[in-house]
Every structure is written in structure tokens, then in C-alpha cells.
Design brief:
Elements lengths: L1 H12 L1 H12 L5 H32 L1
Helix pairs in contact: 1-3, 2-3
Length: about 60
């Protein structure tokens, strides 16, 4: 049961990587086009991982 919870936590935390990548690109003003693309991809990744985390949480509740 602990491994299932650990997997759910890892699935939700993957959105943090996208936020850090966007922050590092934002420090380079000459990369304006890339910033927009990275922001959109980061938002999509964060939303997808939130949905995956929700589904995994529902599966965990169903197993209890």
C-alpha cells in the first residue's frame, strides 16, 4: 500500500520540473518565443499530472 502512495506522490510532483524549466528560460530575454512555448507546455504538463494524481487517488481509495 505504501508503494501505491509513493507512486501517486511522484506522479503529482512531476509538474515541479516544468516550472523550474520555465523559470530558467525566463532568465534569458532573447528566448521570448521559447518562453511562450515552455509556458504552454508547462501548464499542460501540470494539469495532466494533476488529473493523473486525482485518478491515482481514486484508485487508492478504491483499493482500501
Amino acid at each position: 500500500m505504501g508503494m501505491i502512495a509513493l507512486g501517486a506522490a511522484i506522479a503529482v510532483l512531476t509538474g515541479a520540473g516544468a516550472a523550474k524549466a520555465t523559470e530558467s528560460i525566463a532568465r534569458q530575454p532573447e528566448a521570448k518565443g521559447d518562453i511562450r512555448t515552455a509556458l504552454l507546455l508547462g501548464c499542460a504538463l501540470a494539469e495532466a499530472t494533476a488529473i493523473y494524481g486525482f485518478v491515482i487517488a481514486l484508485l487508492i481509495i478504491g483499493k482500501m
